[in-house]
Amino acid sequence: MLVELIIRDLAIIEHATLSFGAGLNVISGETGAGKSLLVGALELLLGTRPKPGRVRTGADKAVVEGRFVVPPGRDGASVARWARRHMPQLVAEWSRTPSDEHELILGRSVFADGKTRAYVNNRPVTREALADLAPRLFEIHGQNDHQKLHDPSEQMRLVDSFGKLDAAVGAYREARDAWRTLADRAERLRAESATRRDALDLARFQRGELEAARVRPEERAELEPERELLRHAATLKEGLARVVGELSESDGALVDRLRATVRYLEGWKAQIVALGPASESLETALVHLEDGARTLQSLSERLEVDPARLEELETRLAELEKLERKYRVDAAGLVAKLEELRAQVARLEADEASAETLGSELAAARAVVLARAGDLRRARKAVRPKLVKAVEKAFADLGLPKASFDIRVAQRADEDSLAAGDPSETSVIEADRARFGERGMDRVEFLLAANPGEPLAKLETVASGGETARIMLALRSALSTAGESRTLLFDEIDSGVGGRLGPAVGAHLKRLGEHHQVLCVTHLPAIAAMAQRHLKAAKAVEGGRTRTFVEDLRDEARVQEIADMIAGGADQETARAEARRLLGA
Q1: What are the two backbone dihedrals, phi and then psi, of residue 10, each rounded to the nearest 5 degrees?
Q2: Complete domains list, the chain, with CATH
Q3: pLDDT over 80 (residue 570)
Q4: Per-residue pLDDT tens for 183-222?
Q5: Could you tell me the pTM of the whole model?
Q6: Could you tell me which residues come within 8 angstroms of residue 401 by beta carbon, excluding any fewer than 6 positions away?
Q7: Element (H, E) at 540
Q8: Rounded alpha-carbon distances, angstroms, from residue 139 to 1, 135, 195, 488, 518
């Protein structure tokens, strides 16, 4: 709902602040007083390009700001989708401050050189982003139409809402999503088929190679010391024999000589205390020397020259080195690589199997989509006569008894080839993507013939001016509870409407105000009297310059304005009496 509209330096409006409420709000005033500028201000918030001369003479820029409150839930769903796409920080702010409603300030600055700037909640946005957001909040019906009602997708949503088809649309979307998941997978598998087979062959070969190698993570650490020992076995055995002899077996061996020294010191250390530490150190050394000699003796006895085992080790380590270079990992990495290859082979084999069976799954999912799309089409065709009757009744009430309305429910794309071809073929999937729209396989179009003898044509091509506004009012009246609540501005809706039709038009506007906020620029007193809030645009010359100002009319001031609208003179008592009658005062 539009709560406040602020205008600065726009043409003859130096500064104006307009406050609006729920229900029907009317704006009246003499021709040329600036009512069209109020409509033009809202058009700027819709992202339209400004007309030349919009900036007030002497000002640097013109500024328009509209403050809206947006309810959460269904009525704010479209705005929430815009915020998630264009301004996610706004969604985060709203989530931190739960409320029954959220505030949005749409702004547009027009500079004297023709450049413009757009912003939402004081954050700069592109003109395109503003133009995407504003129609979710308000529509203008009149000579310069910016209404979503011309959008075929909006027409379809309104028909579905009028017919209470949300559950059927949801069921269709669920089926479509399931089909799209399978279709995406089928296209991926088909696109990857050649490379997948090559990858599978390679993975199978590598898996077999590593499985045959039977690599253990610690294998290299175990084999390399044994290889080194066998490589030098002959030389080492000879050398160890010589070392062992010098240590313990030859005449004058080190062990014997050290043992003799230890015995000599033992005889003296009881008498010569200073020999004690040296004696103990040499005793310890003797123990280590004897232990080392025994270890070397044992190793020398076990050591054998085994060319066959050495060749076996060299072959195995060469195999490990080759695999490590090939896969660029160590022995532990080879074990991990084998597990990775096993998983890859399993995945690729599963994809191969899926590619063979996916056609039947896709066909089944496709059949569900077609069935639910068919249910939607039949339901829409059943809704059509009820909605047509409601709209044409509203036409008659609004002085358009000869206007004809119809709804065309047609297919989105060629359906003759639906049964042709493998459902997993790329060409069939692409065709189905075109057929399976977001809300079904239909294209809904509102058709209108404004006058007898004229053929039915698309809504946006038929009428203009006040007639268009009344047609839109009739449509909106019939569809008042369908779709999201938004602000509707009707400009020149009373064009060509006489006194007898005025009350009917006003009654429609008032009823529409029960579901939407309605703004109406009018010259008809019967319409003005129906409003919950009445604003008057007027102009005055101050300091040699013309200025437009807007007054919020209450009580006697409103009686006077409606009397002026009736007879052109509020001083006439009959006019004032009629004004009070219209107001129910």
Answers
A1: -105, 105
A2: 1-143+479-547 (3.40.50.300), 554-585 (no CATH)
A3: no
A4: 888 877 776 666 777 787 888 899 999 988 888 888 888 8
A5: 0.62
A6: 395
A7: strand 533-542
A8: 11, 6, 53, 5, 10
